[in-house]
Amino acid sequence: MAATERILLEDGIAGLSHRAVAREADVPLGSTTYYFATLNDLLDAAIRRFSERYARRLHAWGAGLGEISPAGLVEALADLVETLLREDRAALVLSFELTAAAMRRPELRDSALLYAETEREVLSAHVDERTAWALSRVLDGLLLQSLAAAVPPTRTDITGPLAALLAPDG
Predict the structure, then answer these.
(1) Nearest to residue 49, comparing CAs of 6, 81, 93, 80?
(2) Cα–Cα distance measured from residue 107 to residue 47, given in angstroms and rounded to the nearest whole number
(3) Which of these, 54, 85, 53, 100, lies nearest to 155 by C-alpha position?
(4) For residue 122, which of 112, 132, 131 has the smallest C-alpha distance?
(5) How far apart are CA 16 and CA 116, in angstroms?
(6) How far is Cα 84 from Cα 90, in angstroms, rounded to an integer?
(7) Which alpha helices (DSSP H) does the chain contain, by range?
(8) Does the pLDDT of residue 147 top 60, yes or no?
(9) Residue 115 half-sphere exposure, CB side, CA atoms within 13 Å?
(10) Distances (CA, A) of 16 to 3, 24, 106, 168
(11) What is the chain's alpha carbon radius of gyration, rounded to the nearest angstrom?
């Protein structure tokens, strides 16, 4: 799986093949096809592994917030967005690529949606379920547009939409 992750982070889904994974892991080709009969099986396992790692990170982040005001949550989420964009860009790109792949590959949908489910779960400890759902979508939009942009977002670009949901009166 580590070899699969390296390939996905470097080359994306287009670079994934049993042969590429076997070469990266320095194992016979039969080793990869024995454990993962199809590329979708391999991709699904990789998505789950990425999602589980992200879930652990996000749960730890959420637990560290404690009691927090709406304005404080705006700032904490902005910090999270900035950190993800700075430190985990390749993983973010891959997560959106995997989500896009799930649009055409229904068998990948459950795994691809684990990121959003984790965000909603963690945020629900600090806001109501409806707001957590909205925040998850805003975070996805902020991250996706930031990855595609030529320049990184400003702090205000990040906090503005979050504050509109969490602290609309000021």
Answers:
(1) 6
(2) 12
(3) 85
(4) 132
(5) 24
(6) 10
(7) 2-11, 18-25, 29-35, 39-63, 70-87, 89-104, 109-112, 114-123, 129-148, 155-166
(8) yes
(9) 21
(10) 10, 11, 18, 44
(11) 18
Answer whether 130's CB lies under 8 Å from 111's CB: no
Structure tokens at 80: 């999270």
- Place 75 in a pLDDT band, splitting at 50, 70 and 90: very high
Amino acid identity, position 25: A
Q: Hey, what are 76's tokens?
A: 């904490």
Maximal CA-CA distance, the chain: 61
User: How far is residue 38's CA from residue 83's CA, in Å, rounded to a whole number?
Assistant: 34
With b for 16 or more beta-carbon neighbours within 10 A and e for fewer, the 44-78 pattern comes to: bebbeebbeebbebbeeebeeeeebebeebbbbbb
Mean pLDDT of 102-127: 88
Q: What is the pTM of this model?
A: 0.86
Are 8 and 16 in contact, with CB atoms under 8 Å apart?
A: yes
Per the prediction, the chain carries an average pLDDT of 91
Tokens standing for 157? Answer: 């670009």
User: Residue 30 — φ and ψ, nearest 5°?
Assistant: -60, -25
Please write the tens of the pLDDT for every residue from 27-55: 998 988 888 999 888 888 888 888 888 88
